[in-house]
Amino acid sequence: MNHMITWSEIAVKDMDRAMNFYREVLGVDFKREDMGGMDYAMFDTAEELVSGALVAGECCNPSADGTIVYLNGGDDLSEPLSRITRLGNQVVVPKTAIADGECGYFAQFMDSEGNRVGLYSKN
Q: Is 52 a domain residue?
């Protein structure tokens, strides 16, 4: 097994709003598809990388209290965190060192849909 996590789905209510939010915060693009009545916006990453999607549908309920997905925050979490606050969203855990920075840094924020989401970076 190469990775414990192989796919993630972040529940959204308003797909366009969520795509715009993540596009602005992380500078990513999406591939949008309908799969069995569910609206998917898959993060545009290299095929061999672990990835995920934003997903909207009847059974998709954004939550601040459930599982937390950690996304790649790039070279320095300060950059996406500043974009999050600029968009009017809340950073609930600021950039925090893991093992005095030896294992990188993490942060958590509330996205445009009401999900608590994490970011991770080595710096």
A: yes
